[in-house]
Design brief:
Length: 510
């Protein structure tokens, strides 16, 4: 199965931006070339700041390149949850910020990315379970109190009946990579320096400046924005306050489509929207969420989505399969602001709870205002260093108990496939070689990629993701390719490679 999103399929790679191979001085260094990083760079450059962006791979090809790309302030049943944890004012600020983000994305698209297929659409949260209708009614009341003009409806255009649905008009969908490439073109025209294949490995924050270390040099700047989706610096204990989750999507050509954007409260969740292509409307169907690194058979997740699609739509073809990773904050509110309570020059945004197109944009606005010393009415609510012990307690205990179980339990009880000969072409997993467990993947030509299956972040043991052909960390969500390269942080160091050419394990000398 080819893992490919439509956003990456129809955007040409274009010229590769250079990797940073020298020292550099700018006002602001932005680490990460996704929606938070490039939107921050755009807003900061508009304010006259000199900016450099460091992206470990290609711009817009990370998490933003694998989203379902809904731009909506209606986000399942978030407002009832936030109201219970942050009060009516906290929920109102979240609604205000995300609604403003919808408008800002539209403005940026019109000015910098007119080809990104931005379309205003109604958004729906629906249920097919009569027992969940009271929960939707509570969400309607909370969303209205938060300032959203939502309606409870009993009928939709979906090809199956629903018990109830919440509708919010004037939300949006778009092509996220075309959007970011449009922003990138504007940034380059303004003299913003964009670097690809450049991984930041450390940041030092001093009283008067910050220094970002990369393999080929360093960047000295007055401020640093860590927009890496999962903060990679082990400060402020973000790894103890975030739960990484993976979810899956398929792109379907069918005889019918949908006009609105939908997400169910039923489990497993089903997300539905459409996207215009030269071959007609492409249905995007998503769901099947699970904690990263805890699914032994990721291919079945795609099979479940395909089965559901065929049950409800007349499917002609399914050309796209892809997955995404999202970080869930312990208390339900994204973390946007100063990296630590003492930080004056180091900033971050994370924990977007699967709604990164709006929350990533909110982060860019808040962080720009913080760097420029401007007042922002949302800043204190999203502050990463807020103290909400009761709101976060249950999730913190659950996540850190789970991490401990993986850290210690996986060392004692790890399933494996036997020896190297047990691996078929295209298959990976833990194998025994000369009494040592290693991570191995057999390529189609029969050759073996072998690695030490221990995460270089905090040394949790990794599990093989058979659909994506990656090594995934169940503790904090780092992901590695079959040859050990970092695909997703917080890890910044690759896995140690193992030489199994002769059937024995050795660590190659560097």
């Amino acid at each position: 199965m080819d893992i490919l999103s439509p956003w990456l399929d129809d955007t040409p790679a274009g010229p590769t931006r250079p990797a940073l191979n020298r020292d550099l001085d700018v006002d602001v260094c932005v680490i990460g070339g996704g929606i938070t990083g490039l939107t921050s760079a755009l807003l900061l450059s508009e304010a006259g700041q000199s900016v450099a962006v460091l992206e470990m791979d290609r711009l817009g090809a990370g998490v933003t390149g694998y989203t379902t790309a809904k731009v909506s302030a209606l986000q399942s049943t978030v407002y009832d949850e936030l109201q219970s944890k942050f009060g009516a004012e906290g929920a109102r600020i979240y609604a205000e910020a995300n609604s403003a983000a919808v408008g800002l994305v539209e403005k940026i698209a019109a000015e910098h990315a007119a080809d990104c297929d931005f379309r205003r659409k109604p958004a729906y949260t629906y249920t097919r379970d009569a027992q969940q209708v009271p929960q939707l009614e509570k969400e309607v009341a909370a969303a209205r109190q938060a300032g959203l003009d939502v309606q409870l409806v009993r009928e939709t255009e979906l090809p199956f009946p629903v018990e109830a649905a919440i509708r919010l008009d004037d939300q949006a969908e778009f092509h996220p990579r075309k959007y970011l490439l449009g922003i990138a073109a504007t940034l380059e025209s303004r003299g913003v320096q964009l670097f690809e294949k450049t991984m930041a490995t450390a940041v030092r924050e001093d009283d008067d400046a910050c220094t970002v270390s990369v393999e080929g040099g360093r960047v000295r700047s007055r401020h640093v924005v860590v927009a890496t989706h999962y903060p990679f610096l082990d400060r402020s204990l973000f790894f103890a306050r975030l739960e990484p989750k993976r979810s899956y999507a398929i792109g379907v050509y069918a005889d019918s489509s949908v006009e609105g954007m939908y997400i169910s409260t039923d489990q497993p969740t089903r997300s539905i929207r459409s996207h215009p292509t030269p071959l007609g409307e492409l249905l995007i169907i998503g769901g099947e969420s699970h904690p990263t690194g805890e699914e032994p058979d990721t291919e079945r997740r795609y099979a479940n989505l395909e089965k559901w699609a065929r049950e409800h739509f007349s499917v002609r073809a399914i050309p796209f399969h892809w997955s995404a990773q999202d970080n869930m904050p312990a208390d339900g509110m994204p973390y946007i602001g100063a990296y630590t309570p003492r930080s004056k020059r180091l900033w971050t945004g994370t924990g977007y709870r699967k709604w990164g197109m709006t929350n990533g944009t909110v982060a860019a606005v808040i962080l720009t205002d913080a760097i420029l010393g401007r007042e922002n009415p949302w800043m204190s609510t999203f502050d990463p260093n807020r103290v909400k012990p009761l709101a976060a307690a249950k999730a913190l205990v659950k996540e850190n108990v789970k991490t401990g179980l993986h850290f210690f339990g996986d060392r004692l009880n790890r399933g494996d496939k036997g020896g190297l000969d047990s691996l078929a072409p295209g298959e990976g997993g833990l194998v025994n070689v000369d009494g040592e467990k290693i991570g191995a993947f057999r390529r189609e030509d029969g050759t073996i990629d072998a690695v030490d299956p221990v995460c270089t972040h905090l040394h949790c043991h990794l599990n093989f993701n058979d659909a994506e052909r990656t090594w995934d960390c169940p503790c904090h969500g780092s992901r590695f390719g079959t040859t050990g390269e970092v695909i997703q942080g917080p890890a910044v160091k690759p896995l140690d490679r193992r030489d199994v050419g002769s059937g024995s394990v050795s660590t190659p000398k560097s």
